[in-house]
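Format notes (please read before filing issues)

Several people have asked whether sequences and structure tokens are stored in separate files. They are not. Every record keeps both together, in the order shown below: the sequence lines, then the token lines. Line labels are part of the format and must not be stripped during preprocessing.
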Amino acid sequence: MRPFQRAACILICLGLCLSSPPFVHAAVTSEESKQLLQKGLTVYEIDQELARIEQQQQNLNAQQTSTQRQLEQQQALSGETKQHAGRVLRAYYMGDRDSLWMLLFSAGSFKDALITLEYLQMIMTSDRDALQKHLDNQKKLKELTSELQTSQAELQQAKDNYMAQKERLTALQQQIDADLAKQPDAAPTLLQEMTNLTLQWQQKGAPLFKTYFLALAQAMKQLPELVSASDSGGGKNTHLIMNGFQYTFQITDEELNTFLRAKNPIFQNMSFRFTRSDIIATGRQDDMEVTIKGSYDLAVKNDGKTKFIRFTIQQLQFNGFDLPQSTIDAMMKDFDFGIYPQAFASFLQVTEVRQEEGKLSILLKLAL
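Then the structure lines:
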């Protein structure tokens, strides 16, 4: 274990043993010290990402084992249905089934003809079922093969990601060790500040971000309410502008803040602002400051057809410190802040999203 890791673990254990751990904004006395604290927070978050990847690898391995077992069973079953279907096809090719139909003409009575016809229909149904079963099994075999290949690719990607994050973690730890070695007298104080910042993020910062994101995801689902709402005087809707077959949904950042605060009081401590390229949210609670920076763009759902407005997080800050991309990716995976115009009206389709200073505009058209 490296010197930084040993010292940090000791300090974290001491901090956890205290009845009131010091949740204070880290005292940054210089740009070098701030960069060191930034590296310490990044190391912690990368370590969390490594734990997530390890869990993902375990899940993928279990999924791959299960799929492989199903594939082997399906291959055995497919061999049986293939043989059965082959016998049926050979019977038709050799004319065996044609000779059965001749039994109708040799029936001695109408009753015998009906019995023979029923027998022939049973044979035809059995033949058709055998061929369909073979086709279904072949389709299932292809699906399982594709699923296994996808799982293998995802597992390889997870392994590559793990190695990349591990290398980054090792490099950052080496940098921290080198930085501390340059400041032996200040090292204990800096380690304490790094521990305090990490504890504050772990126990208060991360839960606060998740609380904000959960409330935001729920509120954005209710955004279509603004389409059916009228202005305070009972007049026409001020958010949806109609121009022939073209529609435009508009909302200012002040209106968005009012809407969000009406949905959840947690947004009383947060403010959203639209710029020409970004959406910036800043908030403060107790001794914590958070900043969320992102943007909207046009995207297509997994069905390849339905368009929606996707929100991409570009930056997360906690008390002035940037959180790594791995943390951003994890947050975006867990929470959906997208806008779905079909929720406004099923006959509308989004064509463009525009941001300008203080306002967001979504251009829509009739989905013909």
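For reference, the curators noted about this record: The chain has a mean pLDDT of 79. The longest helix spans residues 110-182.
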